Amino acid sequence: MKPRRQFAVGILILVFLASLMANQLAPVSYSHQFRESANAPPSHEFPLGTDDLGRDRLSRLLYGSRISLLLAPVAALIATALAALVGGTAGYLGGWWERVGMGFSDLFMSLPWLFLLLTFRAMLPLNVSPLASVIITFTLLGLLGWAAAARVVCAGARALRNSEFVLQARTHGCGDFRLLIWHVLPPLKPVLYAQFWISIPVFILSEANLGVLGLGVAEPLPSWGNLLRDLENYRAALTSPWLLAPLFLLVLVVACFQTVLPEEDLP
Amino acid sequence: MWVHGYKRLNRHMWLHRIIRHMLIVSATVLFGGFLGATLVRVAPGFGVDEQQLDTRLSNESVQAIRHSRDSERDIFGFYTQYLGGLFRGNLGFSHSLGRPVTQLLAERVPVTFYSVIKGLVGGWLVGLVLALSAAMLRSKTYDFACTLASGFFLCLPSAVLAILFLLIQGPVPLGIGLTVFPKIFRYARNLLVQAYALPHVLTAQSKGLSGGRILFWHVLPLATPQLVALAGASVTVALGAAIPIEVVCDSPGIGQLAWLAALGRDLPVLVVLTILVTVITVLANATADLAISALRHRPS
Amino acid sequence: MRRGFYLSVLFGLFISNSFAQQGGELRFCLRSEPKTFDPILVADDSSETIRYLTGGVLIRVNRLTQKLEPELAVSWKVLAGGRRIDFELREHIYFSDGTRFSAEDVAFTMNKLLDPALHSPTGDSFRSAPGPVKTEVYGTSRVSITFPAPVGGLEKLFDQVAILSSHSPQAEMAVLGPFYVAQKKPGSYVLLRRNPRYWKRDEKGRSLPYLDSIRLEIQQNRTTEALRLTRGEIHLISNLDPELFDVLSAESTTLVRDAGPSLEGEQMWFNQVLNSPVPGYKKGWFRSKTFRRAISESINREDICRVVHRGHARPAVGPVSPANQFWFNRTLQPRDFNPQDALQRLEREGFRREAGMLRDREGNPVEFSLITNSGNKPRERMAVMIQQDLSQLGIRLNIVTLDFSSLIDRITQTFDYEACLLGLVNVDLDPNAQMNIWLSSASNHQWNPSQKTPETNWEAEIDRLMRAQASETDAIKRKSYFDRVQEIVWEEEPFLYLINKNALSATSPNLRNVTPVVLRPQVCWNVERLSILPEISEIRP
Fold first, then answer.
1. Helix (H/G/I), strand (E/B), else coil: B208
2. Of A242, B210, C33, C48, which is least surrounded by CB within 10 A?
3. Cis bond leading into A241, ω under 30°?
């Protein structure tokens, strides 16, 4: 493994472990409001200062990292699985199936995803816990984010459709379903693997975008998205560089995810 | 005669292919519009207006506001009527902005169009130039610097990029360009590096062919089909980036219109925007598919 | 020689002052695109701002003194127990397009305003009872308007009625105000130019307004608005967020003004609709005065004012802010923050704490949701603070931010919500504007709207008092009725009034004669007297 990739993997493991150990590492609860110390600068008590409600920023960053790092891969898994199903089936069957499948994925890419998220949020039961609502949000992102990957998988499955081993398996009486699951999708593992790794930072960034637009996780749960909303206060962002910590961590983690994937596996 | 027959068969095949694609595009667009309309119709908050909370209004006025959108409640009836109006050039009336949708689009489409075009052109130019130079120079330092720069913008959420642009008063097209160029650079760089490593290119280089000739005669023809496919995808990326950037930067384009219409459950506007985005996405992908097919089926 | 020097300095000052008083373009932002330029149909803030700047009214509420002043009407009389108002109009007044103003125009405007098919919010304010409104014109300068029933605070309502021309080819674009709409670029800006036929003059006989034009940029983003002020691109910001107030204050303290409590506040309420989908045991909580009082006492309003509003707010008492000098009931005090008392109150009702969680008599954990609209950062922050305050009692509060349409759907149609936190914006000083909140049959009676008959005695009493004050012309009697309404509301707490926000604004140092007030429009209420000094520089700390 190249040194760069090793470094990226190391950083990711470090951040992941830190977020898992948030209970031990965080100086205080992420939701407790020290109202006398609102907007405090970094200090011994609050290493990254406090936000406008007096909540410790470091604690919120650690717990927020947990949300993004644990749930983005789940969303990526869902999206990749759906891409494999739709793209693989369309590419393997070909003809009108392929046209319908790709037309469906084009349709999905054209739907107003922001509106879909707004709608689903509004339809959720009101007494769902913040954690449950964020799990549902990431699941939705996964359900909405498969379409672009499906085209790539479809192209790969199309190329394998008339390959020799597939033709041989067919002549031996292998059915379509078995062929797809056991003979077409396995060789596409590198493509699916690449799509999975590419999707993780995409979902992290999507959640961050939602948070900045006010559609992120419910309070008091922190996430990188709602932590980044503090950047809207331009003066504070310029004069209080510790406010940029979530942005720095987000860029670092996303960059590491992109570095982890070997370049030859990139589409 | 064989060549003549092949050419006639080829033309016939292409016409058939194009017609088939257009039929698929039309069906997808129509279905997309209906799906968009249904989503809006079933969404919570459809048919309400914040005016209802105005305490000066009498009960009768509040009821009148509640019933003002009853014609949109039957989604099949609405969509059929809407399509009829669409073919006559009537795109309906936006209740959230109080103006005909045609007028709104006429004002806002050019704003987004120019932003997206400029952003795409800028993003492609920068991405391709950096990718080409990285592939040709083969300098690790230069390659690392370009990767770092593109990687940084790739890792920024577009909403955060928009906030940064707000602070520096940067133009919206630049924001879109900065969202697009990292993806172009990354993909094109890998493609070109692979192309330069091919045996026949290496042979051409060792035989003393000029850099320009190698690039235009041996490398680009190989990379072009995939770059064309990427072009289609980059249109979708640029459009996707336009929404948060326009919303945060208050640019009066289609992105902002889509956001306002979504918040106001403005059915006519959302339907036409869904149709518009579907047309662009599907056409972009279909064009890319056709182009790849054409390049693959060139007679040698 | 020295005398000559002083004389020339004085002369120079006089000349520069004269030139400084005239001309210039005022620039500020509208937060959304105006939905209409027809003053009859105005329902949103941006359209209201344009109506204020362009419309000529018969009577004006002076935003500083809150007293009535004659405008296009030189005098008026309220007769027949508040059912009729007679106006004596100014003469030799012209619309911006040159057409002459007369009593016909007033009659035309009122008839159009009160057309029931238009559903104008301004028109509905006049509708105290069903029945036609009669307008009678006597010559060119006298008009009489008779209503089917007395209208409380009748004169004040004419502050919202911009007179339209009955015979101008420009229709509603012909105006009597200091400015007229000259240009509009949708999504971008509206340009108002000085009305050359505006009738007002200043004390020195110079024609008003001093400004040549006003450019209203459409800008939703408040951060951008603040940035533009510091860059000198705009001259004022009204309704400034407390966070941005502090940011701008750090740039220069002369920029920002805190005019004291505004008419706006924040309130929360519980869903008391009997047939709502809320579980029955929760309905029992919400309909209990003791429960509502306990929740109210558990909320630290001082902290909310200090932390969320950065000290630019004060705890609220009731539906009327202290900024409403005449109608505010000064005998009432805000609820004290007393979680111990609150817990004792709940314990007397059968609630008890078990393992840190509060449970009711039946053992149900006290947990409910609070909905509010997304995108309003101060309100979201308030909700989070309330969440922590209630957690001290062992109450779990789930905060749900919804887009505005979904929220309105829940509180007006489906009633599928438990508690709601929203703002209260009183544009009108008179309590008649709140009739549709307090009448139990009204659709805006938020906690339990559209009741066929009042479900509680206190709501029946409020109905009686509100109707009494609406049909009374004596201001003192009206006040006593409405004071009693405020007392009942304070006691029963259908709304938990949280805070009254201060009126925060920011102005450029180039802007002269500016006196921000609490009534809207906060800064440009005296637009005809505003003037701009030549540009000096960007704001520098």
1. coil
2. B210
3. no
Q: What are phi and psi of C525, to 5 degrees?
A: -65, -30
- Amino acid symbol at B15: L
- Are the beta carbons of B44 and C410 separated by less than 8 Å? yes
DSSP state of B40: H
Which chain B residue has its CA at the smallest distance from C442's CA? Answer: B59
Q: Residues with Cβ < 8 Å from C60, sequence gap 6 or more?
A: C68, C69, C70, C71, C159
Q: Do C224 and B250 touch (CB under 8 A)?
A: yes
> Phi, psi at residue C137, to the nearest 5°?
-105, 130
Q: Where are the domains of chain A?
A: 52-265
Residue of C nearest to B62 (CA): C443
In this structure, which amino acid lies at residue B84?
G
Q: Do B274 and A250 touch (CB under 8 A)?
A: no
Q: Is the ipTM of this complex over 0.90?
A: no
CA angle B280, B286, B288 (to 5 degrees): 100
Q: Of C373, C371, C397, C400, nearest to C386 (Cα)?
A: C397
Q: What is the pLDDT of residues C375-429, one digit of tens each?
A: 888 999 999 999 999 999 999 999 999 989 999 999 999 999 999 999 987 778 8
Q: pLDDT tier at A21 (50, 70, 90 boundaries)?
A: very high
> Coil, strand, or helix at residue C27?
strand
Highest mean pLDDT among A163-172, C417-426, C456-465, C530-539: C456-465
User: Crossing angle, helix A189-212 and helix B220-249, to 10 degrees?
Assistant: 20
A10: exposed, middle or buried (Cβ count in 10 Å: 0-12, 13-18, 19+): exposed
Task: Classify strands C352-354 and C357-359 as parallel, antiparallel or unpaired.
Answer: antiparallel
Question: Does the N-terminal peptide bond of residue C521 adopt cis geometry, omega within 30 degrees of 0?
Answer: yes
CB contact at 8 A, C443 and B62: yes
Strands C367-373 and C396-402: parallel
* Count of CA atoms in the C-beta half-sphere (13 A) of B225: 12
C:216-235 residues touching chain B, CB 8 A cutoff? 218-221, 223-224, 227
What whole-number distance in Å separates Cα of residue A116 and Cα of residue A125?
16
- On whether the CB atoms of residues C206 and C198 are closer than 8 A, the answer is no
B63-105 residue pLDDT tens = 898 888 888 888 888 888 888 888 888 888 998 888 899 999 9
CA gap B148, B135 in Å, rounded: 16
CB contact under 8 A, C121 and B166: no
Tally of CB atoms within 10 A around C534: 10
Reported residue count of chain C is 541
Interface test with A, best of C337, C372, C398, C417 (most A CBs within 10 A): C398
Mean pLDDT of B248-276: 87
CA–CA distance, A83 with A145 (Å, rounded to integer): 9
**Chain Cα centroid distance, residue B5:** 39
Q: What is the pTM of this model?
A: 0.88
Pick C125's closest partner by Cβ from B52, B56, B249.
B56
**Residue among B118, B119, B94 at smallest CA distance from B107:** B94
DSSP labels, B82-96: HHHHHHTT---EETT
- Tell me if chain B has a CB within 8 Å of the CB of A171: no
Q: Which residues in chain B have Cβ-Cβ distances shorter than 8 Å to C187?
A: 107-108, 111, 252, 256
Closest to C473 measured CA to CA, from C58, C71, C61, C84: C84
**Nearest-angstrom CA–CA distance, A73 and C208:** 66
Q: Go through A43-80 and write b for each residue having 16 or more CB atoms within 10 A of its CB, e for each that does not.
A: eeebebbbbbbbbbbbbbbbbbbbbbbebbbbbbebbb
Statement: A52-265 belongs to CATH 3.30.450.20: no
pLDDT band (50, 70, 90) for residue B298:
low
Chain B from 151 to 190: CB within 8 A of any A CB: 151-152, 154-160, 163, 166-167, 186-187, 190
